[in-house]
Amino acid sequence: MTVATQSTTMPTAEQHGFRPHSDGPIVPVQTRSERFRSTAVADFAPVTGREHEWKYSPVAAFADLTSGELDGARLEVTSTDAAGVALSWIPREDERIGTAGLPEDRAAANAWSSFGEALLVAVTGEEAKTVTVTRSGLGSAPRAAHTVIEAAPNSRALVVLRGTGDARLAENVEIVVGEGANLTVVSLQEWTDESVHLASHFARIARDAKLKHIVVSLGGKVVRVNPSTHLAEQGGDVEALGLYFSDAGQHLEQQVFVHHDAPHTRSRVTYKGALQGDGARSVWIGDVLIGNAATGTDSYEQNRNLVLTDGTRADSIPNLEIETGDIEGAGHASATGRFDDEQLFYLQARGIPEDEARRLVVRGFLAEVVQQIGDAELEERLMSALEAELQGS
């Protein structure tokens, strides 16, 4: 199945939203929603690193995922049991595939063009439940994957999508939240040090439904998880949360897009990260678009980075587009800095050694996101993993 929103030929400047005007022949994309989208990798030009969606990424490190042949066979998947959550494999032709969104870059399109079957995680029932889906043993060969998480109307669940072991993976994850449903999805990256993971998440939220989407990136050499949320119907609500800890030589990237496309929708975006070690890198780009039909919108996005050592780099770029004046509120914030000297002084003045004081400050900084997951066991395990990151083990 191939779907393109504009054309199935090689994209032109016009297809990417570029329009001539008096300042010159080409200008950047006018509106975030105008970006070219297609399920066919051939519709995208080869990646050079100069494209708007790739200019912060180490594209040479994953050229095999953007241009090479990918193994689209079933991944090795294990899952915990939970009443009301069923896993199955569905064919490419299934009508649910493509309902949440379409690829906007070549890696996502390559994965979409390559997968054989999609993993369906179907959620039903109004009782709260938790299920963990683990992908492991993927090896070092480039692979493709496609996952559909479908929450039936008025259902409730927490779904953890976890990656461990070695991987060179390009994937798409579609999240369809039915009317009145309340769904939490945690994307947990705990790959080995040399792994590469490029993921695009697409979510569609129906009337009066709520999605809490949490990205936790700890392991992997290059991890790029880009969540895109479409608040398609009145009363939709999304909390997009992220947590990352970048070590020496590690590149962790998130490009977040929230599209308010209906009246009285709400979004909160909060991503927090820490960086330590030479060459540690993080990239966060947050796009919020409030469409002309999205009256009464309430939106806010923020990104905070804590720099622990010299030799690190954090790029943080919030963007906000508003096409209607009738909104409840909208804003964005970004900050990158070192330890708060006053906090350290306060703790040391009470007899706490400097190393322990630094650990407590970082722990408190990152715990804000961890504590919103809603699963005590997972929260405790992640805090222990962050402790290990701080100690460099």
UniProtKB/TrEMBL annotation:
SUPFAM superfamilies: Stabilizer of iron transporter SufD. Residues 144-365 form the SUF system FeS cluster assembly SufBD core domain. Pfam families: SUFBD_core. InterPro entries: Fe-S_cluster_assembly_SufBD (IPR055346), SUF_FeS_clus_asmbl_SufBD_core (IPR000825), SUF_FeS_clus_asmbl_SufBD_sf (IPR037284), SUF_FeS_clus_asmbl_SufD (IPR011542). Signal peptide: none annotated. NCBIfam families: sufD. PANTHER family: PROTEIN ABCI7, CHLOROPLASTIC. This is Fe-S cluster assembly protein SufD. It comes from Agromyces indicus.
